[in-house]
C-alpha cells in the first residue's frame, strides 16, 4: 500500500511541512525515523556542552569578589560585600553569598573560574558586545555566522538526524547558533515542540509513527531542491520528536529543582532531553536581568541565587542519571560592570568579568590574574584573558572540534579540563 499525501494530511503530518514538496520524504529522514524506532541511544562518550548566557552584563566584581583589595571597598561604599559573608576561594577573592551551590561545586573540584575575561578595545553596548561574544569576531557584521554555528558545520553530523544544537528559550535564536549550514531549532518546553510539529497531544501519535515507517520503506532518491529547505528546518526537529514524546509526561530519575525559576525549568528540560538519548551535543539557554543600573544589591543577589541553585540541581540530576561525566556547563555574560558604583546604588556597563565552567569533566580552580583595580582604563579593569581562549578550550579540549575554523585564528587553550 502506498502512503499518499492525502493520508499524511489526514494524520496531521502535513502540518509540519514534512511533505510540502512531494509525496515522499528524503532518504536521510526515513533512515532517521527507523533509527528512532530502536529507542534511546545512550552514548557514554557523547560529550555535551550547555551554554548559559547571562543577559545584561553581570557584575563580575560582586560575583567573584576581590575582598582583599581596599580599592574595591572604597569604590563601592553601598555595594561592597564583606569578606566574612563570602564563600571563600582564597585570601584575595570569594564567591557572592548567594552562590552557595557554586561554592559546593568549587569544593568538589567541579568549578573552574576564569578571571578577567574580555577582549581588546571593549564595547559597552549590549548589542555590539554580545555580537562580539557570539561571533568570536571583534568587528562582526550583522549576518556573521556564530562561533558555535561555524563549529557545528566543521564537525560531524549528530547521529540519527538529531538537531546539532538546541536553543532552550522563548527568545530568538542567538547569533552564536545562527548563520550555519545546519539548522538549529528553538524551544522552551516539550509541549511547545509538539504543537510546532503539529503533533496531537494524546491520540494519533502511534498512527503517525506507523505512517512514517511505511514511508521509510518506500523512500527512494529525491532530487527536488526545495527539499533542502525542509531538511534545514522542521524535518530536523521532527527526527528528534519521537524520542521527545517518550519523555513528555514522564520524569523518571528526576532530581528536585528550585520552584518558580525559569532557568531551572529550562535546565530541567535539557536534563530530560539528555536522558531521552538525544545525540544533540550543544544546548543553549539565556537568563536575563543582569543590567543592574539601580538598587543592585538585592536584585543581583536573587539572580545569582537562581543561577547557582539551578545549575547545582541540573548537575545533580545528571549525576543521578549517569550522565554527569559527559556534560560541561559554560556561563558567560557580554561584559562586567564598572568598578565604581553609581548614584543609584547600581553599576554601569563595564568590560572584563569572570567566566565559569562547571561539571565533572572540569579541572576546578581559579584561572587568570585577579582584576587589577589600581590600573584602570576608562574606569574599568583591563582584560587579561581573551574570551576566545575559553572558546578554544571548550571546542578543542571538550567537544573535539577544530577551534581555528570557528574562531578564525589559533588561540592557546587553558587547562580547564581533566586529562
Automatic annotation (TrEMBL):
Pfam families: DUF1501. This is DUF1501 domain-containing protein. It comes from Singulisphaera acidiphila (strain ATCC BAA-1392 / DSM 18658 / VKM B-2454 / MOB10). The lineage of its organism: Bacteria, Pseudomonadati, Planctomycetota, Planctomycetia, Isosphaerales.
